[in-house]
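Fresh eyes needed here. Have a critical look at this protein's tokenised backbone.
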Amino acid sequence: MITKKELKQINSLAHKKGRKSQQQFVVEGKKSVEEFIAAGFQPKNLFYTEDPSLEGAIAVTESEMQKMSFLKNASPYLGVFEIPAPNPLPQKGRILVLDKVADPGNLGTILRICDWFGITHVVGSLDTVDCYNPKVVQASMGSLARVQCQYADLNQFLSTTQCAVYGTYLEGESIYNTTFPEDVILVMGSEANGISKALSALIEQKVTIPKKSLNGPESLNVAIATALVLGEISR
């Protein structure tokens, strides 16, 4: 049984303001809930409509689950988790930086791609979509549990880092001819405008995904482009 107060609190987590004030976010689906628990995230509440195999979970009706769910068709499992305290920004290794990536689906997919290639740190600009947005969490399919997603003033971060700073552009050195160092920041730009001019001044090496078609699309989706470049970095 869920109270009206609890339902209202969960519904408020659809919005960044609600997540920030409560320092909580929602995860839906048994596998994803289990992955967040396994990664050390602290569940505030767990709910289920089917097999009660999640320890401490509360039984609710399908109607109640649908009211608290952010999906069109609710999953039988939903968890409310605490947002962990932010860690210090990474100073070495392979780091993905996102400049004004606004689409939740793209960010969620990028987190899955990072998880696949073993990239554990993503740093977004302050105007990049919130990683605890329900659509991001869902699209990440549990990868947010393993990939640290942080936010920072990118001008300051890139100005002070000791890592090499590479950025993706429509023109630059082919990623297939580039040797990426062990300590490298890869900057990916927004879906609409690419890397901003202010950040471009801090890019040390411009790289590109060479286009083979003469009449193909003008650009690639940022998640697809990220997958191609990280695939090369991880070779």
